Amino acid sequence: MKYVIVFDMDDTLYDELTYVQSGFQDVAEYLANLISIDKDELYSFMWERLLQYGRGRIFNDVLLRYLGTMDIDLLIKCIDVYRNHEPSIQLPQQSIRVLEELKNNPLYIVTDGDIGVQENKIKALNLKAYVKDAIASYKKGVDKGKPSPYWFNYIAQVERVKPQQIVYIGDNANKDFVGINQLGFRTIRVKQGQYVNEVPSIQHEAEFVIETIDEVPDTLKKIWPRFITEGD
Question: I need a surface site. Which of 21, 32, 37, 225 has the fewest CB within 10 A?
Answer without folding.
Answer: 225
